[in-house]
Amino acid sequence: MLTVKRFLELSPFYELKILSGHNGLDNIITSGNIMDNPDAIDWFSVGELLLTSGYFFKDSPELQNNIMKQLKDLNCPALCIKPRRYLGTVPENMLKLSDELDLPIIEVPYGLSFSKILGRIMEELSDKYDSLNKKSLDIHSRFFNISLHGGGLHQISVTLSDICSSSVMLLDKNWTVLHWTDHPKQPHLMSEYISLKRKEIPFSDDFIRSFPPEFERLQKPVMRHMSISKFNASIPCTVIPVYFQSKHYGYIVLWNPLSALNEYSYIGLENGAMAFSLERIRSDELTRTRNRIRRDFLDELLMGKITSKETLSNLADLHGINLDLYYTAVVFPVSFLNTNKNLDIVRRNQWENTKVKQVLNHFDQLASISPQVEILFSRKKQIILLLGFSNDNELNQIKLLRQYIQEKLDDVLSNFTEISLYATIGKTATHMSDIHESFHQAQETLRLSEHSLSTHLNNRIFHFDEFLLQYFLLENIEKDTMKNYFKQTLGPLHDHDLNNGSALIETLISLVSHRFNIAECSRDLFIHRNTLLYRIEKIESILLVNLKDAEESLKLQLGLKIYQLLDL
Predict the structure, then answer these.
(1) Is the pLDDT of residue 47 over 90?
(2) Are 370 and 437 in a shared domain?
């Protein structure tokens, strides 16, 4: 064991002079390193004797004090300074802190090279690596057995707490809580200081932002203090990112260790991080498999491939679906605003896929507090909702169903400003075996809503019943027949617009959408009432019709449906 006292007694170092911190002579040295800038502290390991010229902190007493405190947190055994070149003498504030922290400051003579000091330290330490390797193998075996026998996050957390003598938090890559373990000797539970709830972030934004850029790739522990203003406390936290095979799985946090971390603690953290990543891989694969089986079932259900009610009953039991309810299919197509237009195609697709998952997760959160039965999943850029309710439920009324969907839309859009979202609804299926018809209707409504007479209005919810006429036309009448009908009814008006650059057909569309209400239509078109009346007279004179005649109006409305369906 190499202590600071033993280090000073080595033959090459008789010129070294201890200036302060004499009570730290028994501090243990495990390695050596050179410190040339303040950011390098995040890269140092426990027990490293640090060598510096002091250049980067020579003009800042505040930085000098911070460096000393951070080195103490890192369990640095001693700080060796070569002061002659830049400092002249070691500042008094550093010497004072050295005595308070029991962190020795050693003066290095100008002619002694740092490399010679480091080389001699490594020679002296070479004999101890056999015992260190044995302890490392023991720690590795403990975590290997956890992974082998499926101990899960709980056992990983408990083992880390034991090895490191600290309370432990396991977080995902978004800093949300997965699991935690309070060390039995801690005087206070972590929950007394911070909110510990699964899927919630326990740390402040300032704490998270204090870590280096791309911290998840650092793959080494970094120490920070968590300020708890409520208790006027500063809690030391050692955080290591869990990063394996170019994928980030989360973070391990040691909360308020009972004693200074040593090299065995760091070995425990490294092995714990490996076990954590393997557990996350296993969990993710199980989730993917479970979701794939569920998705395959739902895909077959929505395609109408499950025709046997006995098969459907067995699969519904497997996936926890209540067949006694009525179900309505609702499709939420997700489109994206131009917030990520500077990204290349690959990164933009990744961003959009991630955003769809986030929207789906938000829908899941809303479903968890809803009294209704909701089956949610995504297909490409769509969120699919199968909404289940009993026959006597108020949602059996289309008006109330629309209100229910509107509340969901409003909530999601208020949380995701970078997307556009609306909903299309199929007719209610009285049995799950018929849900494919409701889904087909919702998809048809999605297609037909793009040509709706009212798409220019602020309408975000479309029901299949609103498009029965369009659906009937497309399913039963040939396109050539519809084109001929359009030419006979609205052909002259269409030709007039093309030849004169007018917008009489658009005016007629607005009139129909607003039920021939002159005031509403003029506001919609941003024109004066008299201008609209002139256009109405023009339309009637070109088509030789009276728009107030119900029969004539019906013919024209049918022509307008065809105009928008065929995108003429």
Answers:
(1) no
(2) yes
C-alpha–C-alpha distance, residues 473 and 558, integer Å? 10
Q: What is the CATH number of the domain that holds 117?
A: 3.40.1390.20
- Answer whether 34's CB lies under 8 Å from 51's CB: yes
Asked if residue 143 is part of any domain, the answer here is no
Task: Give the DSSP H/E element, type plus range, for residue 119.
Answer: helix 114-125
Residues 405 and 259 reside in one and the same domain = no
Q: Is the pLDDT of residue 456 over 50?
A: no
How distant, in Å, are the alpha carbons of 196, 320, 467 from that of 421?
Answer: 33, 29, 20
Query: Domains in the chain: how many in total?
Result: 4
Fill in the DSSP letter of residue 328: E
CATH number of the domain within which 260 lies: 3.30.450.40
Each residue's pLDDT tens digit, 221-268: 888 888 888 778 889 999 999 988 788 899 999 999 998 888 888 889
**Does 162 share its domain with 32?**
no
Examine the domain organization and report whether 106 and 203 are in the same domain.
no
Instruction: Report the distance separating Cα 492 and Cα 489, nearest Å.
Output: 8
Question: What pLDDT, on a 0 to 100 scale, did the predictor assign at position 260?
Answer: 83
> Is 221 exposed, middle or buried, given 0-12, 13-18 or 19+ CB atoms closer than 10 A?
buried
User: Are the C-beta atoms of residues 542 and 504 closer than 8 Å to each other?
Assistant: yes
Q: Are residues 468 and 492 in the same domain?
A: no
How many C-beta atoms lie closer than 10 Å to residue 294's C-beta? 17
Residue type at 93? N
User: If you ran DSSP here, which 8-state letter would residue 409 be given?
Assistant: H
Structural domain harbouring 555: 477-565
Q: Which two tokens stand for residue 103?
A: 């962190």
325, 395 in Cβ contact below 8 A? no
In the DSSP assignment, the letter for residue 544 is: T
Query: Is pLDDT at 461 greater than 50 in this prediction?
Result: yes
Q: What is the rounded CA–CA span in Å between residue 539 and residue 435?
A: 45
- Give the C-alpha separation, 63 to 482, whole Å: 81
Residue 221 lies in a domain: yes
Do 106 and 185 lie in one domain? The reply is: no
pTM: 0.56
Strand ranges of the sheet holding 17-20, from the earlier edge strand across to the other edge: 17-20, 105-107, 79-81, 48-52, 31-34
